[in-house]
Specification:
alpha+beta; 2 domains
């Protein structure tokens, strides 16, 4: 794939942020109901206030890693850029593959941004549903409204499991995660993941790089591609998809994605057939993130097509 300079990438992000920006709209009732269902009994932890170790990286990442809610799933994401009244966010294609549809037929997902006011108590289904339409909300309800945003799905790369979404009028104080350099990533480097595994909001895990694999097969057999991926043994689970893999400085070096890898062992068939059958064994400690260079190329290439 064509390499993009930092200047070209910055220009591409600028066009993605400012071109064709729709007005922020009210969240449809069906999406609000889904939001209430997903958040019911979930809680924002106090980890952003009480931290040790990688506290500096974690605290900076909190406002740059929104929770993503789609029509039938959820996941993590990364704020790439914030300019004026818009924000550009990257996540996985499979996280937004079944979006909500607004009145104009446009696909969108919901993003929940971090707000320390929300740590006071668990989300309540009925409270979430009743809070959304209020115009003169105060206290917790106001903080909740300010943290929820619809995000327009701009486009996806199925083969690399990447998707780009745009938020109009993002919450005040959100930040972006600066990109690192893929060439600087080496086996043994310590890495950090922040995301929402199993909808456990803003969880941190740490580990190390196992390898940087270039030309690694990604995507389905129908849409296979060769990509740069970072193999790690950092614990990730469903819900971490789309979240950032960061180096010790808190720079983005990859985006966690779903890559099915398993060991297969040969076992005798139950009926005594001399032929063997494959038994899939989940591969422990094999997790992957699509390299930051692939993310940059995707953003730059997508925006070049839409200009």
């Amino acid at each position: 794939m064509k390499k993009f300079s930092e200047a070209a990438l910055s220009l591409a992000i600028f066009f993605a942020l400012v071109c064709g920006v729709p007005a922020q709209e009210r969240i449809p009732d069906s999406a609000a109901a889904r939001l209430a269902e997903v958040l019911s009994n979930r809680q924002v932890d106090r980890s952003g206030i009480q931290t040790r170790g990688r506290a500096d990286v974690y605290q900076k990442a909190l406002s740059a890693v929104p929770f993503v809610i789609s029509a039938d799933g959820s996941g993590s994401s990364v704020v790439l850029a914030v300019k004026d009244s818009t924000a550009l966010v990257i996540t996985n294609h499979h996280v937004v593959n079944h979006p909500f549809i607004n009145e104009r037929g446009q696909p969108f997902v919901l993003l929940l941004f971090y707000d320390p006011v929300l740590i006071n108590e668990p989300f309540d289904r009925e409270r979430v549903r009743s809070c959304q339409p209020l115009r003169d909300a105060a206290g917790w309800c106001r903080a909740f409204q300010q943290s929820i945003r619809p995000a327009q799905v701009l486009g996806s790369d199925v083969a690399k499991d990447l998707a780009l979404v745009r938020v109009v009028n993002p919450p005040q104080g959100i930040t972006q995660i600066a990109p690192g350099q893929i060439d600087a990533v080496k086996a043994g480097d310590e890495v950090i993941v922040v995301g929402h595994p199993l909808e456990l909001l803003w969880s941190l895990t740490t580990g190390s790089v196992s390898a940087v694999r270039r030309g690694f097969p990604t995507g389905t057999p129908q849409q296979s591609a060769r990509s740069t991926v970072i193999q790690t043994q950092t614990p990730v689970n469903p819900g971490n998809s789309g979240g950032p893999l960061m180096n010790e400085e808190g720079r983005l070096i990859g985006v966690v994605f779903a890559q099915g890898v398993s060991n297969r062992i040969r076992a005798p068939s139950p009926d005594g057939d001399p032929r063997s059958s494959d038994v899939p064994i989940p591969a422990a400690g094999l997790n992957f993130a699509i390299g930051v260079n692939e993310v940059q190329n995707f953003v730059a290439g997508f925006t070049a097509k839409t200009r």
